[in-house]
Amino acid sequence: xxxxxxxxxxxxxxxxxxxxxxxxxxxxxxxxxxxxxxxxxxxxxxxxxxxxxxxxxxxxxxxxxxxxxxxxxxxxxxxxxxxxxxxxxxxxxxxxxxxxxxxxxxxxxxxxxxxxxxxxxxxxxxxxxxxxxxxxxxxxxxxxxxxxxxxxxxxxxxxxxxxxxxxxxxxxxxxxxxxxxxxxxxxxxxxxxxxxxxxxxxxxxxxxxxxxxxxxxxxxxxxxxxxxxxxxxxxxxxxxxxxxxxxxxxxxxxxxxxxxxxxxxxxxxxxxxxx
Length: 275
Hints:
Order of helices and strands: HEEEEEEEHHHEEEHHEHEHH
Helix content: 25-40%
Shape: elongated
Oligomer: single chain
Number of domains: 4
Number of helices: 9
């Protein structure tokens, strides 16, 4: 396949095709080099360097398929010595995942597939190992979470609760915007210090505007909310309130049943056995 026939399809700015390395019925390998006029963006400090050239290296990344063939791009990357830390860094390639061996658009495709099917099925469709699909998807989800949660969204009416995300008592603290019915922030752990981070991130002024916080009655969440959301009304959510009330009633029932059995009060035993 001639290089000019796929140049437009690739649509990668500031890079030119310097050859088709290999092509068969399953794969196509394409070599790309940056144009000489392309600025060197340091992956270390993010600045543009014009001096300190220190050679090149080549990395292989997978891109979107072309005519049912898996596409591998052999990308030539320049290396420069960064004046900031005097270390040699490779150039930043904006359309390649920083720590992966795939292009950003390929990673987005993986993320879209895993949203509608399992990692195993997505891997089968793309010809990838399940673990590779998991790593790509995890990185994409973390990236999207950072964009949404930094800075943390502010809300007037909140709900705070913990949720188990793994065995052996591994918990997340979720902060929910009650009006929008959306999870707007979460972090690992369920201590007061975890919720403190949310309140500290949104700032003192925003905390003062919080009107209500629904909690499950956990003391650590209450203390954190009282410390930061000083104007908020603390509301015990109905589910946990009913759970505690039912637990208290059940405890009294069992105690009365124990006493009735001791006193051989059959009438009371029959009543306390009814739930």
